[in-house]
């Protein structure tokens, strides 16, 4: 924000919660698809390739739709709104990058240490 000369306002203060929500959605989608492919018996590299090929499209579409919607704020004459739009675009782009590029690498590394266990219906805590 300092580099772009954007002032901290109550509107930009809410941005953290918004980006955490969006980024969490992206990472949960990737993580769940990865573990689904691992449960099917695929190795971690195959599972991440299938995950990126199938779920990656949905995440990209979701991110670009959100970026497109918030980019409308950039043309606002109200400086607070245009700054909020710019910061949202930057943060969603970073969340997208971390979900598509960083999260798969983390999953492959953690796959060496975490054993996947299939939970049957009888073992679920809620029925």
TrEMBL record:
Membrane topology annotation: Multi-pass membrane protein
Entry's localization field: Cell membrane
Membrane-spanning intervals of the chain: 12-35, 58-80, 86-110
Database matches in SUPFAM superfamilies: Multidrug efflux transporter AcrB transmembrane domain (SSF82866)
PROSITE patterns: SSD
Entry annotated with the keyword Cell inner membrane: no
Residue ranges of domain SSD in the record: 1-109
The entry's keywords: Cell membrane, Membrane, Transmembrane, Transmembrane helix
GO cellular component, one term: plasma membrane
Keyword Transmembrane helix listed: yes
Entry similarity comment: Belongs to the resistance-nodulation-cell division (RND) (TC 2.A.6) family. MmpL subfamily.
Protein name: SSD domain-containing protein
């Amino acid at each position: 924000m300092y580099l772009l000369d954007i002032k901290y306002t109550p509107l930009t203060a809410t941005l953290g919660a918004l980006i955490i929500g969006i980024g969490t959605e992206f990472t949960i989608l990737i993580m769940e698809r990865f573990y689904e492919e691992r449960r099917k018996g695929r190795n971690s590299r195959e599972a991440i390739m299938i995950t990126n090929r199938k779920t990656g499209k949905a995440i990209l579409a979701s991110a670009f739709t959100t970026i497109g919607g918030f980019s409308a704020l950039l043309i606002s004459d109200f400086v607070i709104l245009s700054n909020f739009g710019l910061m949202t675009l930057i943060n969603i782009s970073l969340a997208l990058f971390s979900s598509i590029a960083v999260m798969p690498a983390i999953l492959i590394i953690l796959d060496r240490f975490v054993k996947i266990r299939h939970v049957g219906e009888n073992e679920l805590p809620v029925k």
